[in-house]
Amino acid sequence: MSKLKKRFRQIQKLPDWLFIPPALLIKFLKTFIMRTEVIDPFNLIENARGHVTVTWHNRLLFFPAMFPPATRKRTVAVVSPSRDGQYITDLISHFGLKSLRGSSNKKGAVVQREAIKAINDGFHVSFTPDGPRGPKYRMSRGPVHLASVTGTPVIPISINASSYWQIKSWDNFQIPKPFAKLTIILSEPIKIPPNLTEEELEYWRTTVEAALMKITADRSK
Predict the structure, then answer these.
(1) Rounded mean pLDDT of 16-28?
(2) The pLDDT value given to residue 7
(3) 167 has which bridge partners?
(4) How many structural domains does the chain have?
(5) 7 within some domain
């Protein structure tokens, strides 16, 4: 590893202004270059309040831009406390999203308390349930546990690009190509029962995972 690269990797927080150009570029591409389609049969973007949402890590790039500003302002994203998580936090802040820094694991007590408060205040709490390190398309239990505790449904959301480049990372992170069609799909909310046993928690974890995979298009699978 070169000295320059090593020094860069040691930087935990970059200046906020560095994230303005990529945020503006994403907004420009989504508005003027990409074709977009919204599949929301239950009118969740407009009507849902205080839900848990799950979206795979490898299609986060255009995720904030696909929602109207009002929805972004009432969304809180659970983001890893790592350096990469800080970069994500800084980028999505330019779209109006708030962040909770910490583990999405069931035992992430601090995040859990803050997430419960956010839902009670009418915010959506958004998870990338296979992040921050995978395995790819394997959902953690955190979102299901939170939904069970708060009594709010889980909404699986996918953003599928008609064409994209893939980064050689654990999740094969997708970068949609110019003029690709971006389709956001919001699945039917899944109601999670309260007071789950370990076996029931695993059952509902796999149920939500399957629902999210059903709306996920990926030519590399």
Answers:
(1) 94
(2) 56
(3) none
(4) 1
(5) no
